[in-house]
């Protein structure tokens, strides 16, 4: 059992890949195209999400992401601002 836990811990580490990509293990799958920010304020775009299993036991999802483009970040912030405006009743209609 300890071997499985050690393998799981080593698999869960965040890995920096070539070309501005990273790979990390998280609890839930992530939708490709989803943007997220890291603790340093860098924006990333999810490119793949695959189940991770050690010894036949699934314990998370390996999510690979690349640095987001400026256009992707602008669209993300514009969509968030519009959603907040609708939720606050400042804009009516479809989001």
Task: Please describe what this structure looks like.
By secondary structure, this protein is α+β, with helices and mostly antiparallel strands. The protein has one domain. 29% of the residues lie in helices and 37% in strands. The protein contains two helices and five strands; from the N terminus they run αβββββα. Strands 1-2-5-4-3 form a five-stranded antiparallel beta sheet. The protein is globular and about 50 Å long.
List the helices and strands and how they pair.
Elements: H1 2-11, E1 15-17, E2 21-26, E3 35-37, E4 43-54, E5 57-67, H2 70-87
Antiparallel strand pairs: 1-2, 2-5, 3-4, 4-5
Number of helices: 2
Strand content: 35-45%
Helix content: 25-40%
First and last CA, distance: 49 Å
What about the largest sheet?
5 strands, antiparallel
Structural class: alpha+beta
Number of strands: 5
* Element pattern in H and E: HEEEEEH
Poorly predicted residue ranges: 1-11
Shape: globular
Number of domains: 1
Strand order of the largest sheet: 1-2-5-4-3
Round the Cα radius of gyration to an integer and report it.
Answer: 17 Å
What does the average pLDDT come to? 80
